[in-house]
Design a protein that fits this description.
The structure is a homodimer of 148-residue chains.
Chain A: H1 7-14, H2 18-26, E1 33-34, E2 40-41, H3 45-58, H4 63-70, H5 81-115
The structure holds a DNA duplex (30 and 30 nucleotides).
Amino acid sequence: MSPLLTIGELARRTGLSVSAIRFYEAKGLLSPIRTAGNQRRFLRSDIRRLSFALVAQRLGLTLGEIEEELARLPLGRAPTREDWQSVSRRIRDRLETRIALLERMRDRLDGCIGCGCLSLDRCALYNPEDRAAATGPGPRFLLGDAPL
Amino acid sequence: MSPLLTIGELARRTGLSVSAIRFYEAKGLLSPIRTAGNQRRFLRSDIRRLSFALVAQRLGLTLGEIEEELARLPLGRAPTREDWQSVSRRIRDRLETRIALLERMRDRLDGCIGCGCLSLDRCALYNPEDRAAATGPGPRFLLGDAPL
DNA sequence: CCTTGACCTCAACTTAGCTTGAGGTTGCAC
DNA sequence: GTGCAACCTCAAGCTAAGTTGAGGTCAAGG
């Protein structure tokens, strides 16, 4: 059996849909080679790449951020256990940051509940410094994306 | 001066754009009355409704969830401080849940870094039970939205 | 009365993260 | 050599949370 996987096989191994894998390729998370007949062929290590991507996504990273992290893996040789550990540690740190932020928000909310204010001028919860808190949406102007 | 606000005044008081306020109305967060000439007129308490919505949004709630919470406010009379406190406490609980989830993820990731696995079959990070972790996207099939 | 700025509706565009469908090839099995 | 599943590309659609623009109306001051 070939060391290379078809897109269908990769889909079965990861639980992803075929269309999602194609989409991820378009986003740069994978770069399969092509057969003479233009079909994709994936490396076995791509299973792990996708596994990582799925975990990272559940931790709240965007596909763009995931691509960034995956780009740190060695080019040419298959990633070792240490390679994966260092990438994992980086997202662990992001997670930690997010947790800290949410905890700060929670504590402020506690203060707010105490005073019952919820006033835009006075409430610490509006502090622009914490914009990224939810990696969130919110009205773009207010969040500082400058109307023009 | 009238107790009612025009949409422009409400925008200035909240920092929101006029279009965002109209959008929020469409989503059911507000229900202004109309003048004879079909212009919106808002209650002063709508300033607070929007303030709350903004805070809640930064804590990661969707507009749909925010509407749910706002719907708990008394109909007819202006919300009291206690009304706001109880609604705020509910989102405090949501926040707390989210923090706990992220902490669990972090701990699992720690385990994962230890073993270096990142394998879909074995890795605790894939536990479907934690689906909502990031309130996130992720491939819909995998996340359980049933292909059909 | 008339101008002007604020308001109205409705439709189309944006980004992220995919899915769905149309229409066309490839590759393996019989 | 033929059938059919699995593959291909490309375009369009979906949701969230708005923005932008076109085309039209309202209201208040001079």
